[in-house]
Automatic annotation (TrEMBL):
Keywords: Glycosidase, Hydrolase, Lyase, Manganese, Metal-binding. Coiled coil: none annotated. GO terms for cellular component: cytoplasm. This is Pseudouridine-5'-phosphate glycosidase.
Length: 332
C-alpha cells in the first residue's frame, strides 16, 4: 500500500480535476461562508471531510459536546485532511467553523434548530441558527465540492413506517446528492430492513467495511446482508471514484461497524429500544421529536452505555475518514 503522502498527492490531483478552484458560482455569490482553512483546502485540492453539527447541538450536553467536536476535528487533521463542520449561524450557511463558532453552537444546544434539507430556507430566511442533520450537511458539502462526509449514524425508515410514512430525509438525500457518507450504519430504533430496501429504490450503493452484514450503530450486527463489501481503503476509493466519474448523481453509503470490544450488548439495547418505543407511543411522541426521545430513553435504560457508544462511534468513524478523505484513489 502506498504512503499517505502519495495518496494525498493523487487525491489532490483528482479533486482539482473534479472541482476547479473557485468554480462554484454559489460560493462566489456569497450564499455560503467557507472558513479560511476550508476555502484554501478546496482551492488547492487538499482533502476535506464534512461533519454534521446536530450531534453538537442535540447529541449531548455542554461541555461534553464541545469536547467531542474538538476531538473529532483533531482526528481529521491528524489523518491529513481538513475538517468542515457545517452549520447555519445568523442565517448564514457555514462550511467550516472556527473554535469560537463551535463553542457558540455548543452553548446554544437545542436552541439551535435541528436543520434538515427542508428547513434550510426557513432558517436562512429568518436569520436563525441551525445545526445540520445528514441531509442538510450533504447538501452543503455537495454545493461547495466536498465529496466525503463522516457521521455516526444516518436516519432511516421508522418502525411502522409503512403506515406512518415516517422516512428520514437522509435517505432521499443519498438518492440525489453525490457525496460519500461514512457511518456506523442505522440505529436499531429504526426499521433497518425497510431502510435498506428504500435505499435500493433510491439507487444508493450501500457497502459494508470488512463485513457482509450491515451494522446497527450501537452493535456490529443487524441481521441484514449487504450486496457490496469493501475490505481496504483502495476498495472504498475505487467505489467512490466510480460513482463520481460515472455521474450517477447518488450518494454512496459505507457502513463501518463498531469494534466488538466496544459494542454494547445487542440484547440489552434491543430490550431498551422496545421499552422506549412503547413509551413514545403512549406519550404520542412522533416526528422530529421521536428519535431524540428514543435515544435519550435508551441511554437512560442502559445506564449510559448507548451514549458512550454514540460518542465512540463518532470518533471512530472520523478516524475512518481514511476511507474517503486521503484514501488511495485508483491510478489513472
Amino acid at each position: 500500500m502506498e504512503s499517505s503522502s502519495s495518496a494525498l498527492s493523487r487525491l489532490s490531483n483528482l479533486q482539482r480535476h473534479l472541482q476547479p478552484p473557485h468554480s462554484n458560482s454559489k460560493i462566489r455569490q456569497g450564499l455560503v461562508k467557507l472558513s479560511p482553512e476550508v476555502a484554501e483546502a478546496l482551492s488547492t485540492g487538499h482533502p476535506v471531510v464534512a461533519l454534521e453539527s446536530t450531534i453538537i447541538s442535540h447529541g449531548m450536553p455542554y461541555p461534553k459536546n464541545l469536547e467531542t467536536a474538538k476531538e473529532v476535528e483533531a482526528i481529521v487533521r491528524e489523518n491529513g485532511a481538513v475538517p468542515a463542520t457545517v452549520a447555519i449561524l445568523d442565517g448564514v450557511p457555514c462550511v467550516g467553523l472556527s473554535m469560537g463558532e463551535l463553542e457558540r453552537l455548543a452553548t446554544l444546544g437545542t436552541k439551535a434548530q435541528k436543520t434538515a434539507r427542508r428547513d434550510i430556507a426557513h432558517v436562512v430566511a429568518n436569520r436563525g441558527n441551525g445545526a445540520t442533520t445528514v441531509s442538510a450537511t450533504m447538501f452543503f458539502a455537495s454545493m461547495v465540492g466536498i465529496h466525503v462526509f463522516v457521521t455516526g449514524g444516518i436516519g432511516g425508515v421508522h418502525r411502522h413506517g409503512e403506515q406512518t410514512m415516517d422516512i428520514s430525509s437522509d435517505l432521499t438525500e443519498l438518492g440525489r446528492t453525490p457525496v460519500a457518507v461514512i457511518s456506523a450504519g442505522v440505529k436499531s430504533i429504526l426499521d433497518i430492513p425497510r431502510t435498506l430496501e428504500y435505499l435500493e429504490t433510491q439507487g444508493v450503493c450501500v457497502a459494508a467495511y470488512n463485513t457482509n452484514e450491515f451494522p446497527a450503530f450501537f452493535t456490529e450486527r443487524s441481521g441484514c446482508k449487504v450486496h457490496c463489501r469493501v475490505d481496504t481503503p483502495d476498495d472504498c476509493a475505487r467505489l467512490i471514484d466510480a460513482n463520481l466519474k460515472l455521474k450517477l448523481g447518488t450518494g454512496t453509503l459505507i457502513a463501518v461497524p463498531i469494534p466488538k470490544e466496544h459494542s454494547a450488548s445487542g440484547g440489552l439495547i434491543e430490550s431498551a429500544i422496545q421499552i422506549a418505543l412503547r413509551e413514545a407511543r403512549d406519550k404520542n411522541i412522533t416526528g422530529n421529536a421521536e428519535t431524540p426521545f428514543l435515544l435519550a430513553k435508551v441511554n437512560e435504560l442502559t445506564g449510559g452505555a448507548s451514549l458512550a457508544s454514540s460518542i465512540l462511534l463518532l470518533v471512530l468513524n472520523t478516524w475512518y475518514s481514511n476511507l474517503g478523505s486521503f484514501i488511495l484513489w485508483p491510478r489513472n
